[in-house]
Amino acid sequence: MQDCVIRVSELNKTFGAKQVLFDLSLDIARGEMVALIGSSGSGKSTLLRHLSGLTRADHPKQDESGHIHVMGDVIQQHGRLSRNVRRHRSKIGYVFQQFNLVGRLSVMENVLLGHLGRIPRWRGACRLFSESEKKAAMTSLTRVGMAEFCDRRASTLSGGQQQRVAIARALTQRAEVILADEPIASLDPESAKNVMDILADINATDKTTVLVSLHQIDYAREYCPRTVALKKGRIHYNGATHSLCDSRLAQIYGAEVAEIVTPLHGDPATFVRQMAMA
Ligand SMILES: Nc1ncnc2c1ncn2[C@@H]1O[C@H](COP(=O)(O)OP(=O)(O)O)[C@@H](O)[C@H]1O
Ligand SMILES: [Mg+2]
Predict the structure, then answer these.
(1) Closest protein CA for atom 12 of ligand 1
(2) Which of 23, 53, 60, 124 suits a disulfide with 116, CB 3.0-4.6 Å?
(3) Residues 126, 99, 91, 50: is their CA dihedral positive or negative?
(4) From CA 273, how far away is CA 247, in angstroms rounded?
(5) In whole angstroms, what is the distance from residue 208 CA to residue 236 CA?
(6) How far is residue 246's CA from residue 42's CA, in Å, rounded to a whole number?
(7) Taking CB atoms and a 6 Å cutoff, what residues make up the pocket around ligand 1?
(8) Which residue has the CA at smallest separation from atom 25 of ligand 1?
(9) Could you tell me the distance, in angstroms and rounded to a whole number, from the CA of residue 120 to the centre of ligand 1?
(10) Whose CA is nearest to atom 8 of ligand 1?
(11) How remote is the CA of residue 221 from the centroid of ligand 1, in Å?
(12) How far is the CA of 214 from the centre of ligand 2 (A)?
């Protein structure tokens, strides 16, 4: 694939006796916005965590397996993290379902943390930021519509506001890739749309590559040209989102489709039967 920024080759992951990812390979090109869908427990978070080296893959049997690179940097291979994983990670913005802000710090201080990967550790530890770093943080906050909240304690914000601040932190980090793990799963529909609009704008305007895991297909259909559908640790679909119709989803997920297609009226078994006949 041309200008591939995320490459996963034959990734396997086992927790204890339970294998949760199976020979998973995936390429994502620069500037794509890709949805990763799947019901709860399908392995979305585990895959995303491998991409930024938060989790190590199994030791492989073959040379090429368990190899992950992002932006040309090897994040991990052969079950070992790169020695420079922290530096590589500074190019990857990570957005979590539960926002991961430091609640006792102000909004501005949280966004300034986005600079940590680029400045000397002692400056970060003392929270000494230059005027231009503060200005960059403010620009990011303005972009997500949160500038007026800069002095507020993060813990006092609503979920949607916290998620926008988390995205401002990734912008301040100047992340070239954003991995968003169910960023809207804890939000009301209006905040969810707002957060997805912001991610789509960052993708379209800055050409930042976005891989976003989602519980529901509706948002993938609205925002992501490509969808990767995971089920029990395997990719069952990887292609254009518009071709992933409800009947195809029902074929892939069976009764679990109720988690992915919403709103689903009536009982899932009836839906699956109807879809199978469609
Ligand atoms: N740290 C862990 N220890 C043991 N099992 C885990 C761990 N993390 C995830 N799992 C298991 O891996 C599977 C996939 O989980 P996860 O990646 O969180 O799925 P998803 O994000 O799609 O809901 C689940 O069965 C989960 O219980
Ligand atoms: Mg998850």
Answers:
(1) 20
(2) 124
(3) positive
(4) 9
(5) 26
(6) 18
(7) 15, 20, 38, 40-46
(8) 41
(9) 35
(10) 46
(11) 25
(12) 9
Q: Determine the distance separating the centroid of ligand 2 and the alpha carbon of 84, expressed in angstroms.
A: 26
**How many C-beta atoms surround the C-beta of residue 31 within 10 A?**
14
pTM higher than the cut 0.85: yes
Q: Whose CA is nearest to atom 24 of ligand 1?
A: 41
pLDDT digits (tens, 9 = 90+) for 189-211: 999 999 999 999 999 999 999 99
Q: Ligand 2 centre and the CA of 23: distance in Å? A: 19
Does the CA dihedral 264-266-269-270 come out positive or negative?
negative
- pLDDT band at 256, cuts 50/70/90? confident
Atom number, ligand 1, closest to the C-alpha of residue 40: 23
In this structure, are residues 165 and 107 in contact, taking their beta carbons and an 8 Å threshold? yes
Contact (Cβ atoms closer than 8 angstroms) between residue 30 and residue 209: yes
CB atoms under 10 Å from CB of 218, counted, come to: 14
Q: Measured between alpha carbons, how far is residue 59 from residues 19, 202, 232, 238 in Å? A: 13, 36, 20, 26
Q: Which residues contact 173 (CB under 8 A, 6 or more apart)?
A: 90, 93, 114, 115, 117
Residues 6+ apart with CB under 8 A from 111: 137, 140, 141, 150, 165, 168, 169, 172
Closest CA to 48 of 78, 68, 73: 68
Q: pLDDT category, 62, cuts 50, 70, 90?
A: low
d(CA 44, CA 231): 9
